[in-house]
Amino acid sequence: MPEVVERCLSNAPRGLCVLAIDGLSYGVAEGALAHARTRPLRSTFPSTSTTAWLTAVTGADPSRHGALGMVYRAPDADCVTHLITGETYAFGPCPPPKNPLLHGGPTLFDRAVAAGGAAFVVGAELERLTGEWAAALLHGARVVPSSAAELDPDPVAVVERTVREVEAVLADSHEVPPLVWAYVNLDDHIHLAGYDDRLHASLRLLDTAASRWADAGWSVLAHADHGQVPVAPKAELLDAWARLDSPAHCRMPGGGAGRVRWMYPLPGHERELAAALSDALGDHALVLTPDDLAERGLLAATPVVRERIGAVVALATSAAFPVPDPTVAWEHGSLSDDEMFVPLAAWNAPLAQDS
User: Fold this and answer.
1) I need a labelling partner for 340 at 20 to 30 A (CA). Which of 20, 44, 268, 306 fits?
2) Which domain of life is it from (predicted)?
3) Angle at which helices 197-215 and 155-171 pack, to 10 degrees?
């Protein structure tokens, strides 16, 4: 994406707006963004926001930047950390991690500024975040303060607020064509209600706004980080996970992201735990090692990965998989097409096949 953004920005007379849509699958976007030209992109593995967005703004593979899901261990830590909140989880007392959870790098915002331009980020949800991930994601950007006192998760309200705030930036005078990157959080709604009528209404609003900006001379791109699929975790699988993800079998609580989860076995118990988990989950999961992930071309087994990921990894293969939050109706993280294929859409901007 950094190269796509750079190319589009260099050919944008007024500037480029990038709509970063969280949680949108390609199949839904293709029909809903009626005025855009679209093509599919493949998400990262895991197919989750923390991993995919950092790759999208830096161009770095997850095996390099290390943002592997939502919960995982920092190198040499005896606990796991939630990448967004900073909360740590352990089976006993655990000092705060001393090593970084991820490795940042130059972002597309840094590139735009280095080229003599300006880079703005619109997104009240991101504005409220602190910690390593947010700092790495937004590095080099000027974050535009939102006037929203509260964040309504309704997707139409999210799009209406985002459009207002983007248009305020576009209305300003700019000495050079700017990059305006807007985070559109549809993910929270999709987790609860899926791709319902309200979600489709929000996409029509977004398509209309992007078309209006394109007609005014702006170049507009949109892309997503991952899609989502329905889930219905079985109680017996949730119980089995809880039984195995315990001090009797593991050094620390497990990590992962939604439909990809991993465990940190006690030393010497890796094969035993993998076999027990595979038996417990049956056809509802694929149980692998980090080396297996590398052999399948999913995640290179670099030191960055080995220091963070668990030695026993479970990938969901059915809706019954024991996701960390069984209250959600839709989830992501694994390898199905609806999770992995996301849109790249353009209004008044070239796509790769156009060049």
Assistant:
1) 306
2) Bacteria
3) 10
Mean pLDDT of the chain: 96
Query: What is the DSSP secondary structure assignment for residue 242, as one 8-state letter?
Result: H
pLDDT of residue 193: 98
Residues of the chain with pLDDT under 70: 352-355
pTM over 0.85: yes
Give the whole-angstrom CA distance, residue 3 versus residue 8.
Answer: 9
The letter for the amino acid at 353 is Q
**Rounded Cα gap, residues 204 and 224, in angstroms:** 16
* Alpha carbons 320 and 161: distance in angstroms, whole number: 36
> What's the pLDDT at 349?
79
**37 bridge partner residues:** 346
> How do beta strands 219-224 and 16-22 pair?
parallel
Read out DSSP for 292-344?
HHHHTTSS---HHHHTTS-SEEEEE-STTS--S-TT-SEE--S--HHHHEEEE
Rounded-to-integer distance, Cα 44 and Cα 342, Å: 10
What b-and-e string marks burial along 293-319, b requiring 16 or more CB atoms within 10 Å of the CB?
bbeeebbebbebbebbbbbbbbbbbbb
Strand order through the sheet with 119-122: 37-42, 341-347, 219-224, 16-22, 179-185, 119-122, 142-144
The CA-CA-CA angle for residues 42, 43, 47, to 5°, reads: 145
Q: Where are the alpha helices (DSSP H) in the chain?
A: 2-10, 26-32, 49-58, 62-65, 108-114, 124-127, 132-137, 155-171, 187-193, 197-215, 235-244, 270-281, 290-295, 303-306, 337-340
Q: Which pLDDT score, from 0 to 100, does residue 288 have?
A: 98
Q: What is the pLDDT of residues 50-71, one digit of tens each?
A: 999 999 999 999 999 999 999 9
Q: Which helix (H) or strand (E) holds 355?
A: none
Coil, strand or helix at 35: coil
What domains does the chain contain, in order, with CATH numbers? 2-64+102-228+339-354 (3.40.720.10), 68-99+232-327 (3.30.1360)
